[in-house]
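Question (not urgent): is this output format expected?
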Amino acid sequence: MRYSEYRAYDAVGLAELVAKGEVRPAELLEVASARLEQVDPEINAISLRMDEVGRAAAEGPLEGPFAGVPFLLKDLGQDFAGYPTASGTGPLRKLKADKNATVVQRWIDAGLVIFGKTTTPEFGAVAVTETRTYGATRNPWNLDRTPGGSSGGSAAAVAAGILPMAGASDGGGSIRIPAACAGLFGLKAGRGLVPAGPDFAEHIFGAATAGVLSRSVRDSAVMFDLLSEPDPGGPYLPSRSAQPYATAVDAPPRRLRIGFTHESPLGTPVHAEAVRAVEATAALLEQLGHHVEQAAPRMDSRQMAHDFMTVWTANLAARLAQARKLSGASDSDFDLTTRVVAAGGRAHSATTLIEAHGRWNTYTRALSEFHETYDLLLTPTLAEPPLRIGQTKPPAALEKILAVLLELRAGTAITRTPIYRDLVLTNLAPVPFTQLANVTGRPAISVPLHRTADGLPLGSQFVGPLGSEFLLLQLAAELEQTQPWSHLEPPLAPAAVE
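Got this back:
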């Protein structure tokens, strides 16, 4: 199979070719591997090669809806037995997982041919994929820009044509942000629908969930049927759609009432391109017969962001402590930003953490009240176009100051300074819209409908009420059919391997 033929199919389409005997899984893996060799030196999307695993799987036997399709795992929370899950950090690269994560086992059972892992920022802590261990992962649409984070490696790999779909996860926007940066589709499921087992009941009080990044809506829809199967050992038995999610792409949704806003919940600036992205999406929705008007949930959004960060930083502090214990590494072996943000997490008392998490209910109730009037909330996915590589990195002089304070174990003092607040704001201001869905446990999608004046993707986000995954997939499929995007290719390595 030629690369141009391979690139023309989504994962469902490739699986259909395999099922018909028109192509062998080994042939698909060969094309995917060749494309990886061609483009990864430029985009740096792969953190771990698992070629021997891929070759063995491709020889079969394979069963399932994605039998024979090449696939990459995200190197965070997606354990594959016998291989490390480094979580973007050097100290964990030699520690091998003793069992498969539940979602990974489901991908194996679906017939996917796993042949590697993709880059992620250290512990998935920021919205760009840049680490001391792996360097910077770059956006195929512009190598000076980020593909986002924390599923940045997966986004770069899919956008660059290595494969049509890859593993991802989302604890504060980490599926939707890379989807928006790289011109892809991304669904973050509602709380509890996708299992976190077997080693965890849930991540970040249920705010984080696994999923995929894909070029087509139907790939994500078929995948969601697999991932949302109940887990007997999990903490919830969530209600699923009565219809298979795969059928959501077959018929458009009813005409919807949609409220939209492009004002940052933090009160920080929103780039004109992000405003245009939402306004263009609203106009397209109206052309399709949906009712669209400006509206937003009534809540203290700045306090919501603060309460999200309290829980997030405390979680990061726990992750860092666990990694140190497992690896025997010292603090200095981890990225500076990780250590500074974790210091903020350690500074919170147990009372502060519980109070912050308790207020999540307030925001959930406010969003539920919004959804009594509006079927969906529309916002930009990003507050600005994909950031330049290194844009969130503190100046060298500031890094020296932070390193000294950490060495003096003055972490609590750091969190009380404008330096810490500025560091947090630098990382959160470009992506202020995505955390609401994580805090409230509601499903959300990013749809790649807009391009900036210089050709960069910029997605639009929809947030739905509980159980609205089917509706979100229906709407995404309608938008995809009206304004297709999967045929668009970045200028990276145009002379593809044939």
